[in-house]
Amino acid sequence: MAPEADAGVLRTRRLEIVDDEGRVRASIAADRDPYEGDVTVGLELLDENGSARAWLVDVCGAAQLALALGGDQVAVLESISHDDGTSAVALVLCDASGRPVLRWAVQSDGSYSTSVDGEPTPGS
After folding, report:
1. What are the φ and ψ backbone dihedral angles of 36, each rounded to 5 degrees?
2. Whole-angstrom Cα distance, residue 18 to residue 39?
């Protein structure tokens, strides 16, 4: 059952902000992934061509702040909660094709890891 409406509250599943030409430049949404069924809640900022430039999302216990650097090149800061009660914070840098190239992560127990092209680096 839906909560009682409050005259001072705007409730919606998606809000889009458009520019003077009607192009969507930002959206705030709670969407269900049609493939996984998970709910993604987030804020997305778009350029004048409709390409995502930055987003802040929460999906399946992982919060992500991502910045598009050009093309599919992205820098992602993520906080992940694991089912076993542990967590991690990671910075992931991707190349122009969107492939993760460099990852630094710190676990909740203080341990850390780094990887380049998916391979762990010495000492991590």
Report:
1. -95, -25
2. 24
Checking if the pLDDT of 1 tops 70, the result is no
Please return the burial class of 55, using the count of CB atoms within 10 Å of its CB with bins 0-12, 13-18 and 19+: buried
Q: Amino acid identity, residue 115?
A: S
The C-alpha atoms of residue 27 and residue 18 are separated, in whole angstroms, by 9
Task: Report how far residue 30's alpha carbon sits from residue 66's, in angstroms, rounded to the nearest whole number.
Answer: 17
pTM of the model: 0.76
* 69 and 122 inside one domain: yes
Closest C-alpha to 76, from 61, 65, 86: 65
Q: What is the pLDDT of residue 102?
A: 93
CB 120 within 8 A of CB 104: no
Residues 65 and 123 in one domain: yes
Range of the domain at 39: 10-48
pLDDT score of 2 = 59
